[in-house]
């Protein structure tokens, strides 16, 4: 039986058992605790992720599209760096998975340990460096129990899942780990497909997907083509959305394109293992101005509104690495995470009321504007930098700089931050405005 399908190959259940067993034995024999995996979506990468779970090794996904410097910062936290040489060239000292799986080894199964770290995902940090969130095996188990119990998923029991997100993006936890824990077939879409509708739709059609895990913006992109409809995915029963706001108009179009589909609108930050609550959206809800993000009857943790902010407690709450406290704290005697999201509980549902700080999401990726500002200040000639965001999530940077051009600044910044964090516009000014306390003002227009 084929268990994994990608553009670079597939895996049968037997192949996955063999490859992941050999990789797990390799990691166990070297007493590896943290394994960085350059995450193209090849079959060997999937096997390596499963091997990490088997050997209780913390999996650190490293997006191959990251700038070299940012990739190196993340890689410093791993005991070993694994890659598949068929999709990524690697570097001296890194270990090619193709070599590892050639040599049989003896893997010793381990007793379950909820405290051991399962994975560590790095996101945009306000200091100018990526910030790591470490999720334990217990956190992950809590998520998988909740996810599998969502009525639309529990009742359909999907045996074929379609993945959109990169493995370095926490939305992928929903499809990747559901597949690994249930044996459901996983069909993945690589980054290169997203600019080629015909190739992307062909992969979708071949998937036989019963469950799709998408960001809302990806679904909106797909619906630009009339071919994204029931005929393309005849077996699709459930679409699970998370990572950004799902608009009623998007849900309404999906109901028309995919009669009978069940739409799940989920919510949860990286710090609480992908998602902790979800609401099933009905066609009637899709005619409302906004959609709920959670059904309070079914949550993976405690959901509280404290001074207008969503605060989460329970078994899904993870932690930052390196002693960073951030939004973690205590609420009513329980460990909690202050999300920075405004919210309201009404009619038994959780409703999103916008961010309480400057953080934003573009295509589901979480971005701290200070991260962009601090990296702009690393460029030669830049003395001040302010990043502002328009209502359409257009990023604009205003900088004071000497002897340079916006194009040169953009090229320099592209070596420090991912592409999705690059400002759409960089404006060089002689002076940036300050407020009454002599702090730079950030309410600068485009």
Description:
The protein has 446 residues and is of the alpha/beta class. It contains twelve helices and 26 strands. Helix 1 crosses helix 2 (43-54). The termini are far apart. 46% of the residues are buried.
Short description:
By secondary structure, the chain is of the alpha/beta class. Helix content is 26%, strand content 29%.
Largest sheet: 8 strands, mixed
- Approximate strand percentage: 25-35%
Side by side, the strands of the main sheet go 2-1-10-9-11-12-13-14
Number of helices: 12
N- to C-terminal distance: 54 Å
Q: Any idea what the shape is?
A: globular
Helical fraction: 25-40%
Rg calc: 22 Å
The total strand number stands at 26
**Uncertain spans, ≥5 residues at pLDDT below 50?**
none
Structural class: alpha/beta
Could you report the average pLDDT, rounded to the nearest whole number? 93
């Amino acid at each position: 039986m084929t268990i994994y399908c990608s553009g670079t190959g597939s895996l049968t259940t037997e192949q996955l058992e063999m490859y992941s067993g050999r990789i797990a034995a390799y990691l166990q024999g070297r007493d590896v605790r943290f394994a960085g995996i350059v995450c193209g979506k090849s079959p060997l990468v999937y096997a390596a992720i499963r091997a990490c779970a088997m050997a209780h090794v913390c999996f650190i996904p490293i997006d191959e599209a990251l700038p070299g410097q940012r990739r190196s910062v993340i890689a410093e936290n791993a005991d070993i760096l694994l890659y598949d040489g068929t999709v990524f060239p690697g570097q001296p000292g890194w270990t090619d998975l193709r070599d590892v799986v050639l040599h049989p080894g003896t893997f010793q199964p381990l007793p379950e340990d909820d405290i051991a770290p399962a994975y560590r995902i790095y996101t945009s940090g306000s200091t100018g460096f990526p910030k790591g969130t470490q999720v334990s095996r217990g956190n992950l188990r809590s998520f998988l129990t909740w996810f599998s119990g969502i009525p639309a998923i529990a009742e359909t029991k999907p045996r074929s899942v379609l993945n959109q997100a990169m493995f370095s993006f926490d939305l992928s936890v929903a499809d990747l780990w559901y597949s690994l824990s249930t044996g459901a077939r996983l069909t993945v879409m690589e980054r290169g497909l997203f600019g080629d509708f015909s190739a992307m739709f062909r992969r979708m059609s071949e998937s036989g997907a019963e469950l799709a895990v998408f960001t809302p913006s990806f679904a909106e992109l797909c619906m630009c083509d009339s071919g994204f409809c029931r005929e393309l995915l005849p077996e699709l029963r459930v679409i699970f959305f998370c990572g950004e706001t799902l608009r009623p108009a998007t849900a309404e179009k999906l109901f028309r394109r995919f009669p009978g589909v069940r739409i799940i609108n989920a919510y949860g930050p990286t710090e609480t293992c992908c998602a902790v609550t979800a609401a099933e959206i009905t066609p009637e809800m899709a005619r409302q101005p906004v959609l709920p993000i959670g059904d309070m009857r079914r949550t993976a943790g405690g959901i509280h509104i404290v001074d207008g902010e969503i605060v989460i407690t329970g078994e899904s709450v993870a932690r930052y690495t390196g002693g960073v406290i951030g939004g973690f704290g205590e609420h009513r005697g329980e460990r909690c995470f202050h999300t920075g999201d405004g919210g309201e509980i009404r009619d038994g549902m959780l409703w999103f009321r916008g961010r309480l700080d400057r953080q934003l999401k573009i295509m589901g990726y979480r971005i701290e504007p200070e991260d962009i500002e601090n990296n702009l200040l690393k460029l030669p000639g830049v003395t001040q930098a302010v990043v502002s965001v328009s209502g359409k999530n257009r990023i604009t940077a205003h900088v004071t700089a000497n002897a340079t051009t916006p194009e040169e600044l953009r090229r320099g910044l592209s070596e420090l931050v991912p592409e999705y964090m690059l400002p759409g516009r960089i404006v060089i000014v002689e002076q940036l405005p300050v407020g009454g306390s002599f702090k730079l003002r950030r309410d600068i227009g485009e």
